[in-house]
Amino acid sequence: MAKTKIDLKALSDQDLEQKIAEETLHLKRLKFSHAISPLENPMSIRQTRREIARLKTELRRRQLQPRQDAAIQSENNKQ
Prior knowledge:
Layout: H1 13-36, H2 43-78
Family: Belongs to the universal ribosomal protein uL29 family.
GO biological process, one term: translation
InterPro entries: Ribosomal_uL29 (IPR001854), Ribosomal_uL29_CS (IPR018254), Ribosomal_uL29_sf (IPR036049)
């Protein structure tokens, strides 16, 4: 399954969460299919896991961004 690389920074937080849910469901289906009969491309499981990790990393980066901005602002105010 060839996927085109998507620009994660262009997606909204809600889109990221939706994409994580879709990819997680896709991963479960792949694992289930692989347990029943071997997949033609078992590397697709790894690719899907990594895509989920990329999505979660971007979402977490966005959650931490306001804290980092506030820490930088408070550091600048002390000087």
